Amino acid sequence: MKQTTVSAAQMQAYDKYTTETIGIPSTVLIERAALTVINTVAAGSFLLENVLIVVGTGNNGGDGLAIARLLHLKGIKVEVLLLGDERKLSADNKLELAIARKYHVKIGRTVKDFRDYTLIIDALFGIGLKRDITGKLAEAVKKINASNQPVVAVDIPSGLDATTGKILGSAIRATTTITFGYIKSGLVSGDAHKRVGKLVLKDIGIYAPEV
Ligand SMILES: NC(=O)C1=CN([C@@H]2O[C@H](COP(=O)(O)OP(=O)(O)OC[C@H]3O[C@@H](n4cnc5c(N)ncnc54)[C@H](O)[C@@H]3O)[C@@H](O)[C@H]2O)[C@@H](O)CC1
Ligand SMILES: [K+]
C-alpha cells in the first residue's frame, strides 16, 4: 500500500475505478471496510459493552451499518443513531439499512446521553462531505465530543475536509481513525491533529488505476 496522500477527488476516482472499471461491487468494499474496522477495534483496548454507531446518509453510513450488523451478530450490544434525511440515502446505504433491519439491529433517530456508550463509532460522513455540518447534525457532533467517550472514526473524522483537513462547521474528535486504502491529505494537514487521534491505514481493495 502506498503511503502518499491523496485528495478526496483522487480517492473518489480510485473508488470509481475499482467498482466501475475493475467491477468489484461496492458492497464487497463496504463489507471489507466493516470487517477491517471490527477487527481493528477488537485488537485495541476498547470496551465493547455498549457500542453506538452514528451513521449518515452516504456510503460512510453504509460502512457504519455493516459494522453494526457484524457486531450485533457477534452478540455485542450495539445501537445505530441514523442522522440525516432518510429519503436521501445512497443506494448502498439503503441496502445496508434494510439488511441491518432484517437482523433486528437497533436503529434510532435520537440518543438520550452519549455518555451511556462505552464506544462510539463515527460513520456520519466520509470523503463525500461537501459543506459545513449544521443544525441537528452539528449538535450531535458537539455532544459526542463533549461526552469524552472513546470514538473510532470510519475513514475520516466526520466534519473534517478530506483534502484540506479544515473543520467544516464542527468535526468529531476521534481517539482512533481507521482510513481505507490511502491516507487522505486532510488526515495529516490543517486541523487534522486536533481530530484524528491515532491514524490506522488499512487495505480494503481499492487501488489507483496504475496499480
Ligand atoms: N465505492 C465506494 O465509494 C466506497 C466508499 N466507502 C465509504 O464511503 C465513503 C464515501 O461515501 P459517499 O461518497 O457516499 O460520501 P459520504 O458518506 O461522506 O456522504 C455523502 C452524503 O452526505 C451528504 N452531505 C455532504 N455534506 C453534507 C453536509 N454538510 N450536511 C448534510 N449532508 C451532507 C451528501 O449529499 C451525500 O448524500 C468513504 O469515506 C468510505 O467510508 C467504502 O465503503 C468503500 C467503498
Ligand atoms: K466518519
TrEMBL record:
<keyword id="KW-0630">Potassium</keyword>
<keyword id="KW-0520">NAD</keyword>
<keyword id="KW-0479">Metal-binding</keyword>
<dbReference type="Pfam" id="PF03853">
    <property type="entry name" value="YjeF_N"/>
</dbReference>
<feature type="binding site">
    <location>
        <begin position="59"/>
        <end position="63"/>
    </location>
    <ligand>
        <name>(6S)-NADPHX</name>
    </ligand>
</feature>
<feature type="domain" description="YjeF N-terminal">
    <location>
        <begin position="11"/>
        <end position="211"/>
    </location>
</feature>
<keyword id="KW-0547">Nucleotide-binding</keyword>
<feature type="binding site">
    <location>
        <position position="155"/>
    </location>
    <ligand>
        <name>(6S)-NADPHX</name>
    </ligand>
</feature>
<protein>
    <recommendedName>
        <fullName>NAD(P)H-hydrate epimerase</fullName>
        <ecNumber>5.1.99.6</ecNumber>
    </recommendedName>
</protein>
<keyword id="KW-0413">Isomerase</keyword>
<feature type="binding site">
    <location>
        <position position="60"/>
    </location>
    <ligand>
        <name>K(+)</name>
    </ligand>
</feature>
<dbReference type="GO" id="GO:0052856">
    <property type="term" value="F:NAD(P)HX epimerase activity"/>
</dbReference>
<feature type="binding site">
    <location>
        <position position="122"/>
    </location>
    <ligand>
        <name>K(+)</name>
    </ligand>
</feature>
<feature type="binding site">
    <location>
        <begin position="126"/>
        <end position="132"/>
    </location>
    <ligand>
        <name>(6S)-NADPHX</name>
    </ligand>
</feature>
<dbReference type="InterPro" id="IPR036652">
    <property type="entry name" value="YjeF_N_dom_sf"/>
</dbReference>
<comment type="function">
    <text>Catalyzes the epimerization of the S- and R-forms of NAD(P)HX, a damaged form of NAD(P)H that is a result of enzymatic or heat-dependent hydration. This is a prerequisite for the S-specific NAD(P)H-hydrate dehydratase to allow the repair of both epimers of NAD(P)HX.</text>
</comment>
<keyword id="KW-0521">NADP</keyword>
<dbReference type="InterPro" id="IPR004443">
    <property type="entry name" value="YjeF_N_dom"/>
</dbReference>
<comment type="similarity">
    <text>Belongs to the NnrE/AIBP family.</text>
</comment>
<feature type="binding site">
    <location>
        <position position="158"/>
    </location>
    <ligand>
        <name>K(+)</name>
    </ligand>
</feature>
